[in-house]
UniProtKB/TrEMBL annotation, chain A:
Domain Importin N-terminal: 21-101
An example Gene Ontology molecular-function term: small GTPase binding
Origin: domain of life: Eukaryota
Source species taxonomy: Eukaryota, Viridiplantae, Streptophyta, Embryophyta, Tracheophyta
Family annotation (SMART domains): IBN_N (SM00913)
Pfam families according to UniProt: HEAT_EZ, IBN_N, TPR_IMB1
Gene Ontology CC terms, in alphabetical order: cytoplasm
Locations listed in the record: Cytoplasm
Protein name: Importin N-terminal domain-containing protein
Automatic annotation (TrEMBL), chain B:
Protein name per Swiss-Prot or TrEMBL: Snurportin-1
Its job: Functions as an U snRNP-specific nuclear import adapter. Involved in the trimethylguanosine (m3G)-cap-dependent nuclear import of U snRNPs. Binds specifically to the terminal m3G-cap U snRNAs.
Domain Snurportin-1 m3G cap-binding: 103-279
Record InterPro entries: Snurportin-1, Snurportin1_C
Localization (cell): Cytoplasm; Nucleus
Length: 868, 422
């Protein structure tokens, strides 16, 4: 096949030509994969071929080795590994040869393809000569070959994990890369490629960073590179410093003074991309120290943990003025630009992180700046002062901040309405939001909001909701936190007198023509949700009045016909907001009997609307509508049965949605809601639901986080249908048993331990539900054969000593359920288990009330089981 | 290798409301799941406690929606009748239906006018609605209907009826009220007080119980308008001495609720569970919409229907203690319909009606209809069957009651009030 022409045609502007070419490429690939890949690598290597076709050949090669979707990627890896060995070595030879091509596009694409092949083969211990031959390339004369090789090393380090390359080769890679970075390297492109390669190789350098000499060398070269005359090298070098700050925090002490000097100079003088990285270095140090200090506050074990070196605290007197200076470098209109990121924004963000790191110490360093600038005629100074104030509200103690806030509040309220500059108003509204979020509510002893200023605050915020979209959005946010602070303040809320007006204003905002900008509509609905959530019985009638209003809004979204895909997306988003709002309202009204009673008159209509929202889409289920239906099922109780015939297919669709696993997880939760609501009336739907749930458990495509809730859901169903669960018992128990075995022995990071505990909890909740469901039925003896394994599982997780409190409570409850349901049949089995003694005693003396109560229940049930 | 993006969230609240909605949903679901399990477990512990005299400890019994901090207190005192009620208020299933029905004092139907009505009896207009037990304990209040099903689960101003952090209600305190829930104004009308603030009134006379009810209920704030910690209003009903004016007032007086007949309580009677002739119910068209029993569809069947229990000797009896015999069921029917002892069966009373000899039932013309609704816990009582029979044929009228009061000294009984037509 004349591949050049086809590749050429595949880039034609003529659609038909392009389509034919793509079709023949596809056929070629399907009929003869090795031949196809060989032709492509040959094309890529051939210096006589046009750049365009070589480039495309490289791209197709790359895409035949890797994909974004996990399962597709796995397929491609398997396909490559099973390819004929001769073909593979020919392809790889072509690739290594192309790396020395003087044509930039050819060698640049090739370095990525080589890295992809390496990503597949190196973990399989294949292509052992790759790194050796790359390193020998580094000493080649043409600079472009050197550059291509360094780039390849960089990509390679990005593709493979450090443990597949032995230290000897790591040393050689790092030596080559750092030499390529050093000032003695005359070629700028080579130096840049080396600096970027180092960024990826840093993760391989654990051993080298533990060696003082090697670390000093690497750090010196990186710091020198930050002073390179070439801006791209300076930027890449600072990126390396940022990466080092998080990967090797504990090694930084000897260099931190120098780094401060370098970064300070860059922040003040260098071009923006470099200055941003320099600020990011300090933000990253803050991240590290905040994490470490949080661990200190928690149960600090002392041995393996990294200590805090208090770099920020030491740098504070110089760092804060440097950051305050950046605040004055705002861009016009940065608030209207979603993607904006500039030095003022980075500096302010860093200032906020510094405040969280050092707490009170930052206040005296920032207050003079605020005082000096807050009333200046130049808007930049007023905005910077306000932003500085807003940034330091998290971290310092309320005692330190509240006196400042008390002075500033009136000023802020006035600025929000009167300042002529929109940028200042935006930041002022944001700062008010931060004040309400962090310093208002039951957490604070001396309230900053009194009856006197509450009215003024609300008036100002509602007025600002008529301002430009970005300011209005911040005003909504401030109101959100204002309402949140009044949650659980008792039967009467200070917002009650304004409730109607607030709701009306928020609804008005959602109807603004420009509500699509700056996330304004979303913010307005979210604030409405919070206002409803935090409302009290006094305003329950007003919340009830809101039901038909939101229903009408939702109804209106269903009227539009023949939408473009863009409109459809907007419609779906709006439906999400409205379903979310209804969910919050249902949950609120459903929680109290009198309001639930009145609310139920709308249930049929609301359910009808949710079903229509589902019907808007062909294959997917609207997550928000699903969540809302869960709340509705809970409020409706067994009457929900009347909606099941129509709703069931969407329930099934939700359970089948592996791609959007959040939707699947939400649907699983709704199955639980429905089980509890319907009890035995769920029986007609159980076959379908259980089949789908078991399918989900055995699927590799479903996100693992959905599996624990599926097990819990088994328990919900079993508890609802009782002995009818017999039908599914064997399948459910076998799935539970294999999951239980997997979850007993674990070794891994915190994330895995956390996941395992959630899996255990799901399994245990399933056992609880099944035992309680079968209790007092003539079929309890069906459970006896499973008891030994379950007791073993309980003993197993007890002895692993890594369960959390939730698992502990559920586990000891299962012991009680087992004893309660099986009674004397399980008496001797229980007595032989470790759980019935040591574990039970440990739980009985637990300080956690929930654990203690479950344990007492278990003790009672066991004493009965063994006494009979 | 392009430069790496280092943008951080700017002026954005850290929370996502959608995430919050998801999390709150999960929280609610976890709470509901816990409640459901708790309920299942508590059933077991109550059955257990009914069997054993003094268990060493009781498991937690907090299964309310609002609660966040469960009470640690355990009940360790020996089991009294009252504590059973508190346990049982968390029961579910058929056990609870029977159990609860046994705990309520069930008035007999007035088929003749008792002696000394004016001296020994109270009268009041019965509110239309659901008869239920309201139990407050451990910071929550549960109302259970006669069949044991939960009507509401809510915080109330009754002692121990809500979780209020001032600690006023000790964990030991609790209340049990005999109520009728009136749907229209969402009010619990308290018709009797069984326990108040840990103090049992089972063994007190109605006279004392009504006195206590009237003073304590008001004091507790339970009669106040609903609020966050008090979801439903409670109200006492006006109780009169059953003299001429009292009966007149109860019969014609304006009350804030729809009436469903009159209740007569003997002043000296203790709170006796089950059917009792010391409390009576009477109704006519003027004071009740539901004089003649309706069927499942709410329609009045052409023939009176009764529910009787089948005994092992094929006898059909009422729920009275001792039971009243109504007849025997044909062995064929028993076999054909697969009936068992203790089945509750539904019959129509045929044209033959009921025949009496010396005021005692002698013969009933029963037509077998089928098994009764599963929700039924008990057969009809004798007085109920008779009252319904009378309503259809020769009702006891208000004038008869008034006349009986007027001739208060007249010791003569009035069995002739029942005019047999059978």
């Amino acid at each position: 096949m004349e591949v050049t022409q086809v590749l050429f045609n595949a880039q034609s502007i003529d659609g038909t030509v392009r389509k034919n070419a793509e079709e023949s490429l596809k056929q070629f690939q399907e009929q003869n994969l090795p031949g196809f890949l060989l032709s492509l690598s040959g094309e890529l290597a051939n210096e006589e071929k046009p750049i365009e076709t070589r480039k495309l050949a490289g791209l197709i090669l790359k895409n035949s080795l890797d994909a974004k979707e996990q399962h597709r990627k796995f397929e491609l890896v398997q396909r490559w590994l099973s390819l004929d060995a001769t073909a593979k070595s020919q392809i790889k030879a072509c690739l290594l040869q192309t790396l020395s091509s003087p044509v930039f596009d050819a060698h640049s694409t090739t370095s990525q393809v080589i890295a992809k092949v390496a990503g597949i083969e190196l973990p399989q211990k294949q292509w052992p000569e790759l790194i050796g031959s790359l390193l020998s390339n580094v000493h080649q004369i043409p600079a472009y070959a050197k550059q291509a090789t360094l780039e390849t090393l960089g990509y390679l380090c990005e593709e493979v994990s450090p443990d597949v390359i032995d230290q000897d080769q790591v040393n050689k890679i790092l030596t080559a890369v750092v030499q390529g970075m050093s000032a003695s390297e005359g070629n700028i492109d080579v130096r840049l490629a080396a600096t970027r390669a180092l960024y990826n190789a840093l993760g391989f350098a654990q051993a080298n960073f533990s060696n003082d000499m090697e670390r000093d060398y690497i750090m010196r070269v990186v710091c020198e590179a930050t002073l390179s005359p070439e801006v791209r090298i300076r930027q890449a070098a600072f990126e390396c410093l940022v990466s080092i700050s998080s990967t090797y925090y504990e090694k930084l002490t000897p260099y931190i003074q120098d780094i401060f000097n370098i970064t300070a100079k860059a922040v003040r003088e260098d071009e923006e991309p470099v200055a941003l990285q320099a600020i990011e270095f300090w933000s990253s140090i803050c991240d590290e120290e905040i994490d470490i200090l949080e661990e200190y506050g928690g149960d600090f074990t002392g041995d393996s943990d990294i200590p805090c070196f208090y770099f920020i605290k030491q740098a504070l007197p110089a760092l804060v003025p440097m950051l305050l200076e950046t605040l004055l470098k705002q861009e016009e209109d940065q608030d209207q630009d979603e993607g904006a990121w500039n030095i003022a924004m980075a500096g302010g963000t860093c200032l906020g992180l510094v405040a969280r790191t050092v707490g009170d110490d930052i206040v005296p360093l920032v207050v003079p700046f605020i005082e000096e600038n807050i009333s200046k005629p130049d808007w930049r100074q007023r905005e910077a002062a306000t932003y500085a104030f807003g940034s330091i509200l998290e971290g310092p103690s309320p005692e330190k901040l509240i006196p400042l806030v008390n002075v500033a509040l009136t000023f802020m309220l006035s600025a929000l309405t009167k300042d002529p500059n929109s940028h200042v108003k935006d930041t002022t509204a944001w700062t008010l939001g931060r004040i309400f979020e962090l310093l208002h509510g039951s957490v604070v002893d001396s309230p900053i909001i009194s009856q006197a200023n509450c009215q003024q605050i609300i008036t100002v915020l509602l007025q600002s909701m008529k301002d430009t979209p970005n300011v209005a959005e911040k005003a909504c946010g401030a109101l959100y936190f204002l309402a949140q602070g009044y949650e659980e303040m008792g039967p009467s809320s200070p917002l009650t007198p304004f409730f109607q007006e607030i709701v009306q204003s928020l609804l008005t905002v959602t109807h603004r023509e420009d509500a699509g900008e700056s996330r304004l509509r979303t913010a307005a609905y979210e604030t409405l949700n919070e206002v409803v959530r935090c409302s009290t019985d006094e305003t329950a009638p007003l919340v009830l009045q809101l039901v038909p209003v939101i229903m009408m809004e939702l109804h209106n979204t269903l009227e539009g016909q023949k939408l473009s895909s863009d409109e459809r997306e907007k419609q779906s988003e709006l439906q999400g907001l409205l379903c979310g709002c209804l969910q919050v309202i249902i949950q609120k009204l459903g929680a109290s009997e009198p309001t639930k009673y009145v609310f139920m008159q709308y249930a049929d209509q609301i359910m009808g609307l949710f079903l229509r929202v589902f019907a808007c889409r062909s294959a997917t289920v609207h997550e928000e509508a699903m969540l809302a239906i869960g709340a509705l099922a809970y409020a409706t109780g067994e009457d929900f049965a009347k909606y099941m015939p129509e709703f069931y297919r969407y329930l099934e669709m939700g359970l089948q949605n592996f791609e959007e696993y959040q939707v699947c997880a939400v649907t699983v939760g709704v199955v639980g809601d429905i089980s509890r609501a319907l009890e035995e009336k769920i029986v007609p739907y159980c076959d379908g639901i259980m089949t789908q749930l078991l399918k989900n458990l055995s699927s590799n495509q479903l996100h693992r986080s959905v599996k624990p809730p599926i097990f819990s859901c088994f328990g919900d169903i079993a508890l609802a249908v009782g002995e009818y669960f017999e039908k599914y018992l064997m399948w459910a128990m076998s799935a539970l048993q294999s999951a239980a075995e997997l979850s007993t022995h674990i070794a891994g990071d915190d994330e895995l331990v956390e996941y395992t505990n959630s899996l255990r909890n799901g399994i245990l909740e399933a056992y609880s539900g099944i035992f309680q469901g079968f209790k007092n039925s003539p079929k309890t003896q069906l459970l006896i054969p499973y008891a030994p394994h379950i007791l073993q599982f309980l003993d197993g997780i007890y002895m692993e000593k890594d369960m959390d409190d939730v698992v502990m409570k559920t586990a000891i409850g299962v012991l009680g359920d087992l004893a309660d349901t099986l009674g004397s049949h399980a008496g001797s089995m229980i007595q032989q288990s470790v759980s019935s003694k040591d574990f039970l005693n440990e739980c009985l003396s637990s300080e956690d009330l929930m654990i203690k109560e479950s344990a007492e229940w278990a003790k009672l049930a066991i004493s009965r089981a063994i006494s009979v | 290798m392009a430069p790496h993006d280092i943008r951080r969230p700017f002026k954005r609240a850290a929370i996502s409301d959608q995430q919050k909605r998801r999390e709150l949903s999960l929280l609610r679901q976890a709470q509901n799941r816990r409640d459901a399990q708790q309920q299942a477990r508590c059933l077991a512990s109550s059955i257990l406690s009914l069997q054993s005299a003094a268990p060493e400890s009781q498991p937690e019994q907090s299964d309310i929606e609002l609660e966040t901090v469960p009470e640690a207190e355990q009940e360790s005192e020996a089991f009294s009748k009252d504590l059973d009620v508190r346990q049982a208020s968390k029961l579910r299933g058929p056990e609870v239906r029977k159990w609860f029905a046994r705990q309520l004092m069930l008035p007999e139907w007035m088929i003749d006018v008792p002696d000394r009505l004016a001296q020994d009896w109270y009268v009041f207009a019965r509110p239309a609605g659901k008869r239920c037990f309201v139990v407050s304990s451990n910071g929550t209040t549960v109302s259970r209907q006669r069949n044991g099903s939960i009507l509401h689960h809510f915080p109330s101003a009754l002692p121990a009826g809500a979780k209020i952090r001032d600690g006023s209600g000790s964990a030991q305190s609790y209340c049990i009220l005999d109520c009728i829930f009136h749907e229209l104004d969402q009010t619990y009308y308290v018709i009797d007080m069984v326990c108040w603030n840990g103090y049992s009134l089972y063994d007190c006379t109605a006279e004392f119980r009504f006195y206590w009810l009237n003073s304590k209920l008001e004091e507790s704030g339970a009669c106040n308008a609903p609020s966050h910690y008090h979801k439903f209003r409670f109200s006492a009903v006006p109780v009169y001495n059953c003299d001429q004016s009292g009966l007149h007032a109860a019969y014609t007086g304006v009350v804030p609720y729809a009436k469903d007949g009159l209740l007569f309580y003997n002043k000296h009677a203790l709170y006796q569970t089950g059917n009792t002739p010391l409390a009576l119910v009477w109704k006519d068209e003027n004071c009740s919409q539901y004089v003649i029993d309706t069927d499942g569809k709410g329609e009045i069947p052409s023939q009176q229907q009764v529910v009787l229990e089948l005994q092992d000797d094929r006898k059909l009896v009422t729920s009275d203690d001792p039971p009243v015999l109504f007849g025997c069921l044909d062995g064929d029917i028993i076999e054909k319909s697969g009936l068992h002892t203790e089945n509750l069966l539904r019959f129509a009373i045929g044209d033959g009606g009921l025949s009496f000899v010396d005021g005692k039932l002698e013969k009933a013309d029963l037509i077998y209809l089928g098994k009764s609704n599963r929700a039924r816990a008990f057969a009809d009582s004798y007085s109920k069957v008779l009252f319904q029979f009378m309503v259809r044929h020769s009702p006891l009228k208000i004038d008869d009651l008034l006349a009986s009061i007027n001739s208060a000294n007249d010791q003569e009984k009035t069995p002739s009030d029942i005019e047999m037509v059978g």
